[in-house]
Design brief:
- The chain is α/β, with parallel strands linked by helices.
- It has two domains: about 140 residues, Aspartate Aminotransferase, domain 1 (Alpha-Beta Complex); about 250 residues, Aspartate Aminotransferase, domain 2 (3-Layer(aba) Sandwich).
- Helices cover about 40% and strands about 15% of the residues.
- It has 14 helices and 13 strands.
- Strands 2-8-7-6-5-3-4 form a seven-stranded mixed beta sheet, sandwiched between helices. The chain has a four-stranded antiparallel beta sheet with strand order 9-10-13-12. The protein has a two-stranded parallel ribbon with strand order 1-11.
């Protein structure tokens, strides 16, 4: 017949996609200007001019057959070398093109990496709140997912809980910084503590525990002094999964990469396992045109000032309303505490004001909601009075 697990995944959309579809239907009913959809993380800022300029130039300079033909399975050699050299220049981590595998975005990077590492009986750890597809990816690799709660005030890792959870069965820890859904950044001190703990446990168990860093929002930070450190500079058994979707505002082009730390235990074998997993999954030869575009535009970003303005406007406005929010250092999401224990009930009440929010339970953190502020600034300006009315229903601060 058919695979039941695949059927369940395909027959029920994620909550975020359900809200997105609801927003489209509601917009047809009452007008898009009256619906405030904060559900999906689709970049609202145009790609840098160089993205389109590079694409045009490539189509003019490179013969069509060569431009649109196959690259090496792991990606064009010149592309990988350019990206590796730039990574070394930016983060001080010596990489070569032979440490990189080009992929169809971060989802492919993660699924390939998990499949490459997973052995029988392995488990992977994530910290809530976490991107819900991690559960799908880990299960698809045939491993167990262990979810740990973060510090309730900072949403940074709870290291005491992590140390207790690090058994010999743990193959890796997945982190996401800046974080989706909270916008929290794991700073240098956090990465140092994480690296020290994983290193100590790896030595104790006689086997590496990998640190898998999911970094689609790496460049999206807004405050002076806020930096996203390279995990490879602090921990040898580390793998970076990257996507250009958010930094270059190109989510539909599906281009990213896997970088295996050359200092990792059996690094070359791990890299070959990545190549083999990509082959097994059918993720070979990422889109050739966009590989070349990515190499030319690596390190660039869209206009982040728009997201910063949106972040400040929304965060300050919600605080004035009396809502409790975790300050988002990066990405383009804000995590807000629900005024009632049932986050879904709060999201349903918000719908009365046409405010479409995502229940934090989907990210492993019930009692919270995610608000994506990658929207037009005027949408936030028009939504804040509605948030004020919603706050009044819960007896929250006067604000605004």
């Amino acid at each position: 017949m058919y695979n039941e697990r695949a059927y369940r995944l395909g027959s029920k959309r994620s909550t975020i996609r359900e809200i997105f579809e609801y927003a489209k239907a509601r917009s047809e009913q009452i007008g898009a200007e009256n619906v405030f959809d904060f559900s999906i993380g689709n970049p609202s800022v145009p790609a840098p001019d160089k993205v389109n300029e590079t694409i045009r130039r490539l189509t003019e300079e490179i013969p069509s057959v060569a431009l649109h033909g196959y690259t090496s399975a792991q990606g064009d050699k010149e592309v990988r070398e350019k990206i590796a050299q730039n990574y070394t220049k930016r983060f001080g981590v010596p990489l070569s093109g032979d440490d990189l595998y080009m992929t169809c975005g971060a989802a492919a990077s993660l699924t390939i990496t998990l499949r490459a590492l997973r052995c029988e009986g392995d488990e992977f750890i994530v910290f809530a709140p976490y991107f819900p597809e991690y559960a799908v990816f880990v299960a698809g690799a045939g491993a167990k997912l262990t979810v740990l709660q973060s510090d309730p005030d900072t949403l940074l890792p709870d290291f005491e809980a992590l140390e207790k959870a690090l058994t010999p069965r743990v193959k890796g820890v997945i982190i996401n910084s800046p974080n989706n859904p909270s916008g929290v950044v794991y700073g240098e001190e956090t990465i140092k503590m994480l690296s020290a703990l994983l290193g100590r446990k790896s030595k104790e168990y006689g086997a590496p525990i990998y640190l898998i860093s999911d970094e689609p929002y790496r460049e999206l930070v807004y405050d002076k002094g806020t930096k996203v450190p390279s995990v490879m500079a602090y921990y040898e058994n580390s793998i970076v999964c990257y996507s250009y979707s958010k930094s270059l505002s190109t989510p539909g082009e599906r281009i990213g990469y896997i970088a295996v730390n050359p200092k990792a235990t059996d690094a070359k074998a791990v890299y070959f396992a990545v190549c083999g997993a990509g082959r097994e999954l059918g993720y070979v030869c990422a889109p050739a045109l966009f590989q070349r575009m990515a190499a030319e535009c690596d390190g660039m970003t869209a206009d982040l000032s728009v997201y910063k303005r949106n972040r400040d406007l929304l965060y300050n406005g919600l605080k004035e309303c009396g809502f409790t929010c975790v300050y988002p250092d990066g990405a383009f999401y804000l995590f807000m505490k629900s005024p009632e224990a049932d986050g879904q009930a709060f999201c349903e009440r918000a719908k009365k004001y046409e405010l479409l929010l995502v229940n934090g339970a989907d990210f492993g953190a019930d009692g919270w909601v995610r608000i994506a502020y990658c929207v037009q600034t005027e949408r936030i300006e028009k939504a804040l009075p509605l948030f004020k009315e919603l706050a009044k229903e819960y007896g929250l601060g006067q604000g605004l």
